[in-house]
Structure formats: C-alpha cells, structure tokens
Design brief:
4-stranded antiparallel sheet; alpha+beta; 21 strands; 533 residues; 17% strand; single chain; 6-stranded antiparallel sheet
Length: 533
Amino acid sequence: MLDILRQNAKSTLTYALFGIIIVVFVVSFGPGSKGCSDARVTQASWAAQVNGVDVSGADFEQYYAGVFRSYQARAGQGFTREVAEQLGLRKVTMDQVVERELLIQEGARLGIVVSDEDLSRAIQQMPSFRVNGAFDKDAYERAAAATFGSAKRYEDRLRRDLLAQKTLALLRETSQVSGEEVRQAFDAESDRVDLEYVRFPTAGLRAAARPTAAEVQAFQARNGERIGKYYKDNAARFDRKKRVQARHILIRADEKAPADVDAAAKKKADEALARIQKGEDFARLASQLSEDPGSKERGGDLGWFGSGVMAKPFEEAAFAAQKGALTGPVRTRFGWHVIQVTGVQEPEVVPLEKAAPEIAGEMLQEDLARAAALKRAEEALAQARKGKGFGELFPPEPDPKAARKGPAPVKLGGELVRPDETGPFGVGTRPTIPRLGAVPALFDDAFAATGARLLDKVYDSPGGPVIARVKSRQRPDPAQFAARKGDVEVRLRARREAQVEQAWMKALREKADVKVNQAYLRGEVTLPPVQLD
C-alpha cells in the first residue's frame, strides 16, 4: 500500500487545489464530521512564509487534516498516522499550501478578481450546505462559525482559494494544441504492437552462481576499470551513514492526552521495562504489550534505520545507545517507547580498495547468471525458429488436482520460465515496453515488423534475456481519425496542461522567497487538536 501511495505523493497543482477546496471544506463541514472545531487554532504561529506572507499554523494543520482524510479515504483505515509519517505527508501538504499561496499571489499580480457572485455560487453549490437539494443558510453559518469562528473568516479563506483556482484556469487557457499535433498524437496512439515474450530471469541464477575466491580475484584483476566506474557511479552505497537496528514496545498516549492518561501509559512502559530487566524476552513481551500494529507481530522489530526516519526523541535515544542496550521509556507524539538496540552500524566511507572484492564478486555472479540465461534463451529461440510455440516450449505448472500430469515446467535458478504478454502498447512509450521495462532494441524491431512474426534475436532486458513474437501489429487508420479526434485532443491537452503547470510552478518557486518552519514538518508544534481519523 505504501508503495502505491508514494507514487502519488507528488501531486499536481490541480490535486493541491481541489484537495484543499473540496476535501478540507466539504469534508470538514460534512454531516458527522470531526473536523477542526477549535477556533483557537487560528492563533498558531506561521508554518511557512512565502514572499513575506505568512501561512499560519492553523492553515497548515487544517490542510494536513484534509489531505490525511483524502489519503485515508483511498487507502482505508490501514492508512494510519504512522503510515502518513513514513510517506512524508506533512512535506506533501507543505508543498501544496506553498503552491497555493504562490498561485494566490500571482493571481493578485495579474489582476484576477473573485467577485461576490463567484463566492456565493461556490458556497451554495457545496453539497454539505444543501438540504433536500436546496442551500441551507443556517447549516452553512453554523459550520463556518464552528470551524473558522465566523462566516466572514471562512469566506475570506474561500475567496483566496477561488483566486488560486482562477489563476490556474487562466494558465490552462495558454495550453493550446494544434490540429497537426492532434493528428500526430492520433497516429502515435494508433501505431501499436502486442508482444508475446519469454524472459529468462537472472535473479535465481545469480544466487546460484558461487564463484571461488580465486575466480573473483582473477576477475578483479581483469576488470579494474569497470569496478572503478561502478564504485564512482554508486558512491552513496559506500558512504555508509550510522544506522541502528532496534525493537520497541509502544504504549500509546496522544501528545495532548490528559495528565492522568499520560501517566498511566508511562507506568505501563515502566513496568514493561522492569520485566525485561528481570530477564523476560523483549520480543515476546512486545508481541503481547506493544500498541504499534506495524511491528507488534514481529516482536517489536523495526529493522535497520538511519537518521531522519524515526521521531526525533526516539532517534536520539536509539542512536545514543550501545548494541544490546535497553533505553526508555522515551516520549514521542505517539506515546511511550521502551527500546532495545539490537545492532549498530557506525558511519564509514568504504574505500575502493576495500570495496573492490565485494563489487567484483557481485559483477562476476551477474555475468555468470546472464551467460547461463543467454545460453538458455538462444536454445529456446532455435526451437521457436523450427515452429514450436512459446507455450509448448515453456508449459505452465501442472494442476495438482488434474488426473493426468502435463509436461514439466521449466525453471531457472528456482524461478519459473513462462510466456507472457505485454498487451497492446504505442510507439509513444519508447523505449519502455509494458512488463519488460526499457528494451530499446526490442522496441524498435517490434515496431519495424509489418505483421505477426517471431523476432529472430535474443534481447537484453533489465530482468534477463528475452525472446519475443509479435502477436499483432496495428497501423493508424485515417478513416478513424474524425471519430477519435475529440478524445485524442482532450488527452493531449490534459498532458500539455500538466506540463505547463509543472514548469510554471517550478519557475514561480525558483524566484520566490520561501521559508518553511521545520517544526511543522516534524510534527513538533503543539496545537489544539485537529482530528485525523
């Protein structure tokens, strides 16, 4: 889940605006909402300064709550505060509110105006302020007063958001596409190939390749320049920062919890520490007592982590401890932690002389694995030239319930070798092929084909050698252009708008004076509560 969310963490300006305007206001005001109900939050200090204009702590916390809820709506209740911290959601939110302020300032500079009619229309169209299909003024005024102290404060905020939205709309009007560009895009989308392929994976073969020390030494002697280039290109790998491996037991207590609740949580943590000091197993106790769902089932194991990953008090305590030491209870915004440091890797810049044998061994393993996979691919291609299909050469694993067993599947290093398909893809993705990655030679040969046929070559892909067959070859049909022109133009314009927005915002940020209060990014500022879940 985290990987998927990371892919969407850097949103476009459109997401920023609608995430703020729709999510924050509509969700916060919605029936049963547990939004920002304390007007005192508006008295918080600045979270960012954009060209001398403050973005208040209240604004930031409200936007953060709205963005958190939007992610949680997509990911479900498994999207917790801890997951948000791992994803860097505070940084995502900070980027969005800074971009919003830059849009507002640019809109004002360009003379864009949000009229009273614009404001009234936006408020009356919000679903949360409508009852039986009609705008309910009393419901609106109650919600605005509860969240912002008054309807006027809310309207001032909304007017600024609408100004940002209008500025963005004006920018989009500059994203024109010509008829020739639409025709070229149609041709590119209609020029398509569908491949059947077999990849011969090297990962399992690499693990199985076990060169001797003498072979590695001889390889190192022959490949000094190659090894040196790898070392230079991967310098960060050999600049090893301090890392710590630890377990923890978390007893939850919100940072704004009443004193008696906080004291009770600390007492539980003290008792857990005392039991461990008397000889009880940390991992077993963590699986029983810890209130961190992410590590509880692993006996509290957090794995290896470097600086900047954990909450600051936790990190400071763990990094100050020796291997095998117990420390705590340590208070973070999540509660009280008892920590056991199970490993310490001190910082070190590994010199080339020391790293060279390790690099040489890895390279030799990779070369041996690729040579073995290439040999198998060439044998399979020779069989395919004689008319054998990929499915015949590489049968699937037999059904264990079947009465008769089929031919045995082919495995390399324990990995199943089987045919697969890319599905139709267009020339515009060059050199990337679906499911295979960047394979320029295969891409070019596939599009050079005039019809279905075997491609008479073994291709090198990131995952191992590949043989392929063109299943189908689709060429642009001029007769279909008129029918598809509108859809193509919409997609092309959307891509153009995104490119223009990104370039424009980058230029605005580069010339802007932006200061960010890092305490808000770390979640260290104490504010009246903003409900997240």
